Amino acid sequence: MLLQLPLAQQRKLVEQLLDGSLMLLDACGTAKDALSQTKKCTQELQSILRRRRGAEGLANEVRKYLTSKKAVRKTICKALKNLKHMENKISKDGETGAVTSTLKQVEAVTISVLESLLSFISGAEAELKSSPW
Questions:
Q1: pTM across the whole model
Q2: CB-CB contact of 52 with 32 (8 Å)
Q3: How many angstroms separate the CA atoms of 16 and 76, rounded?
Q4: In a domain? residue 18
Q5: How many domains does the chain have?
Q6: Is residue 127 pLDDT above 60, yes or no?
């Protein structure tokens, strides 16, 4: 049990769990920002299509959309690397008690869900599936 450990070890475990939680919050923020940016660019693209401003306006809007999508994908890749690093760190940590073990399992499941969400947003899986190879 966590309370039976020496005070220094308790602090270390609590700080590790808090660091993990903060990294998960960062990943959630990244996912939220990526979704908002993608939604905004998609709405702007739809708007220009409805207004039919001509090929030049459409080309500019498509360029903006592709640039934005590339930036979002880059941010998501960085977040995915951080999540993978967290996942590896969790798997290397030893068992210390029921409470910390359960919290680490919750953290691992959350990481997995966020990885799936970020991969979906970035379109990485869709591109792999559409490849003829």
A1: 0.65
A2: no
A3: 24
A4: yes
A5: 1
A6: no
